[in-house]
Design brief:
With 401 residues, the chain is α+β, with helices and mostly antiparallel strands. It has 3 domains: 3-100, no CATH class; 103-216, no CATH class; 219-300, no CATH class. Helix content is 39%, strand content 19%. Strands 9, 10, 11, 12, 13, 14, 15 and 16 form an 8-stranded mixed sheet that branches. Strands 1, 2, 3, 4, 5 and 8 form a 6-stranded antiparallel sheet that branches. A hairpin with a 2-residue loop joins β10 (136-141) and β11 (144-154). The radius of gyration is 50 Å and the shape is elongated. Mean pLDDT is 77; it is low at 231-238, 256-262 and 380-401.
């Protein structure tokens, strides 16, 4: 077998990167006779690529981002061999400008979620870098494939995530729309035996997509809905309920039976419905999304009207409560008024009597002064004889009899 006559698929493992050279390990070659890729074992690899079963790539500081990824290459004889018998010698070379392999990796998440709309949740959490061998991945759910999804390292988490997720912000970013395909069972390959996640397939074996689904981050999906509805629908309700109703109305308008007034993909609307129904806890920035809308957006206009109505209702309720409290206190106040009137009447009588007494004040004064003068001239004894005290008592008893 002349290895130079075939296109090969290989991988550069991190341990095979050195200062001025890296080594790519061949995993499969394209067999034109059967029009398919044929896997090779490590033993066959050492036979085809003596002595170490690898092809050398002479390059300084081979980039780490290109390790653990599948690449295609055409081997060439190594004309610079100094020790052909050394077990570390590579008899073949590969050029440093490697082309990504025409393969995509498949992650089977059928048992990890109960609903297909929950797959983006797992994707947002990221995938271990060591488990990813391609620049493009597909997610398998039951007998369907969803993709392609371009991935890259997220420096914030050191995990692999979709490019659209990595480049997004808390309130903005790009949509991630993925196609749904029927699983090509006959074209699945497992290049790397030790990795359970190393199932691959040639993307050219896929048929036509069945449909398209929205796997964007929740805030991106909702923002698309709000922006698309800028000129449609005026009768909405506030904040989360307001957005929820708008999504439902937009779904109805975008259906085959409704008017074609909104230019937005139905898959985005369906995803938004699911988020608002089942995943509101993931939508942390709904307020920020709404605040970014233009001032004349119908959503904000209705929200302002609702805020005015809400405040008016609160003021009316407060006035009603105050009136009820006053109504309940009215009998007590009336009783207090009657008591006060009675008290004023009594004081009026007392004042009237005092005024009568005041008219005779001079006579009263003279009557009081005469005894005082007499007592000062003729002081009384400290004791009064008993017969003087008895006489009046007896006389009173006689009168009584």
């Amino acid at each position: 077998m002349n290895v130079q006559d075939y296109e090969w698929i290989g991988i550069v493992y991190p341990g095979d990167v050195h200062d001025v050279v890296a080594f790519i390990t061949p995993l499969a070659f394209y067999h034109e006779d059967i029009n398919a890729w044929e896997l090779i074992s490590p033993d066959v690899g050492r036979q085809c690529f003596p002595n170490n079963g690898k092809a050398a790539i002479f390059v300084k500081d081979y980039p780490r981002s290109k390790t653990n990824r599948l690449y295609s290459f055409w081997p060439q004889l190594n004309a610079t061999i100094k020790d052909s018998e050394s077990p570390r010698t590579s008899h073949y070379l590969a050029f440093s400008d490697l082309e990504p392999a025409p393969f995509a990796q498949v992650f089977d998440w059928t048992t990890r979620v109960s609903n297909v709309y929950d797959l983006p949740d797992l994707l947002e959490k990221g995938i271990e870098e060591k488990d990813c061998f391609c620049h493009s991945i597909y997610i398998r759910y039951q007998d369907d494939l969803y993709g392609p999804i371009r991935i890259e390292i997220d420096d914030r988490s050191s995990r692999v995530r979709p490019h659209e997720y990595v480049k997004s912000s808390s309130t903005g970013g790009n949509l991630l729309l993925v196609s749904r395909y029927t699983l090509p069972h006959a074209h699945m390959l497992q290049f790397i035996a030790y990795s359970p996640q190393s199932v691959f397939f040639d993307e050219s074996s896929l048929g036509s997509p069945l449909d398209v689904v929205d796997w964007s981050l929740p805030q991106i999906t909702i923002k698309q809905i709000l922006n698309a509805s800028n000129t449609a629908l005026a009768d909405l309700e506030g904040n989360t309920r307001l957005v929820d109703k708008r999504v439902r109305d937009l779904v109805r308008m975008s259906s085959r039976d409704g008017p074609y007034g909104v230019h937005i993909k139905l898959c985005i609307l369906e995803r938004a419905q699911y988020i608002l129904t089942h995943q509101m806890e993931r939508l942390h920035n709904l307020r920020a999304l709404i605040e970014e809308l233009p001032a004349d957006h119908p959503l904000l206009c209705v929200a302002r009207e609702q805020e005015i109505e809400k405040r008016s209702a609160e003021i009316a309720r407060d006035a009603e409560v105050r009136a009820q409290v006053h109504q309940e206190r009215l009998p007590q106040l009336e009783k207090e008024v009657r008591q006060a009137e009675a008290q004023f009447k009594r004081w009026g009588e007392i004042l009237g009597r005092l005024s009568m007494v005041k008219g005779n004040s001079s006579n009263l004064a003279s009557l009081i002064i005469i005894p005082l003068q007499f007592s000062s001239r003729y002081p009384l004894k400290a004791t009064i004889p008993g017969d003087l005290m008895e006489t009046p008592k007896k006389s009173r008893m006689a009168c009584t009899n």
